[in-house]
Amino acid sequence: MPFVRAxxxxxxxxxxxxxxxxxxxxxxxxxxxxxxxxxxGGGDGTGSGSGGGKGSAGSAxxxxxxxxxxxxxxxxxxxxxxxxxxxxxxxxxxxGDANGRILxxxxxxxxxxxxxxxxxxxxxxxxxREVGSVADPAGAGGKGLCCTTLYELPQQIGDMPAxxxxxxxxxxxxxxxxxxSIRVFKSTDHGRSWSPLSIAATAGNEGGLWExxxxxxxxxxxxxxxxxxxxxxxxxxxxxxRTSDGKNWKGRHATVESSQEPDRxxxxxxxxxxxxxxxxxxxxxTPGGKYACVVHTRTSKDGWEWGKPSDLGTRPETAxxxxxxxxxTLAWAPESGNPQGxxxxxxxxxxxxxxxxxxxxERTLWxxxxxxxxxxxxxxxxxxxxxxxxxSCANYSSALLPTADGRNVLEIATDNVDGRCRPFYAQGPA
Length: 430
Known about the structure:
single chain, four-stranded antiparallel β-sheet, 2 helices, 4% helix, globular
């Protein structure tokens, strides 16, 4: 999360507004929302909002590549009537007759209970319907729920066959005393029902544990990446732990850990490319300056060892020096004539080489056909996010899911509409 944890921070009052407060605000925004004002179907639910990110005092947004008037982008549609946040999307590939279906997850609050909502599309992302939900008792009764993930096992892990679905969350941030954990659930019926599987990490103090992400390493183990605020020497760092059976987690270690205590690596997303390389994208938030919460990448040969943790990685940029900040996500897509395919990257906001916000940055998608090396190319993102605010809703950790042929991409992004955080989806060229 892009702030300093409250219990151990030693900086100004602004920095004490930590990850716990951010997720409390998320819960409040969603819980207080009035449900069901918009009609079903193709309404885009557009509300008032200012375009462009918020820059430093006296700075004007700078123009990026033109985004309007491009063919092939569908109108955005609301994923659900309820407010929601932190969307994720997968296409089933190891589930027999269900292969090809798209499943999504996002967090909403029903009463005081945090709930993971599961939607399904059987028409390649044209329409969605709710098919299940995950109710973690640790996120019920106002305890708080944040930052969930959705994953399909590509191979057997323990007694779980390929095609088993996993969902993990970060519950308990509002409990007193707070003791957060990364809890894992499984589904064997394509997301209709869920049962507890294991706990991948438990905080040893009141620091937060956030943003789980799954991958399979080169040895065939299930890896859980997450953000950890429990080390007093580090405001936040990225961690990894793995399991061979889905139940017993071992080998916990830091993957990104800055030598500067205030730095906050977080929000890891990992994808494997055809040559076996693993690519991780994440943000690194700092107390301020031009590169606060800038997006970084790094690679691993085996998906477990990522090099020296204090090596903070590489900042992806376009040829003219634009870069993303906050809440990145990453996807891989096949590409005609390129055995390595291409990577797709999105962040909450885009800035120019001088650190000024770029107009349309919240509607921009990047691609790279060289495994993340060199300059990235910019194009219009499918979902037209209307609010350019750098808050915990607008374009915050948007989901990207390329089509099987890599020509198009489904995006699910959240936006502020009439004081509510709403998930929307649309498709466009990849």
